[in-house]
Amino acid sequence: MDDRLVVLVTVPSQDVGKDLARMLLSEKLAACVNIVPSIVSLYTWEGELCTDDEALLMIKTTEAALQELISAVSGDHPYDVPEIIAVPITAGSTEYLSWIGEVVTR
Questions:
Q1: What are the pLDDT digits (tens) for 71-96?
Q2: pTM of this prediction?
Q3: Which residues contact 77 (CB under 8 A, 6 or more apart)?
Q4: Where are the beta strands (DSSP E) in 12-76?
Q5: How far apart are alpha carbons 86 and 103 in whole angstroms?
Q6: How far apart are CA 4 and CA 7, in angstroms?
């Protein structure tokens, strides 16, 4: 079960996040998506300092599904360069980690 990941994706609104989450879940690319409703992101884009209110998706998936998940998010995301960062899950509930593998079909 060392192939389980949390993928972090920022979105401009909860509504966009819900749409992406539903798509990933229906395609069986994710087992669960948590939406953190209000974050403030500061970053440099095209030479400008930007500050935006965003939401954060925390997507539970497998390494086998990652590339397809990245393609799906990139294709439906409103940003030119969406933040998509995968972090390995190094430990956790055996039952929960097994469930991720049962739900994600890649």
A1: 999 999 999 999 999 999 999 999 99
A2: 0.95
A3: 9, 11, 16, 20
A4: 32-45, 48-62
A5: 18
A6: 10
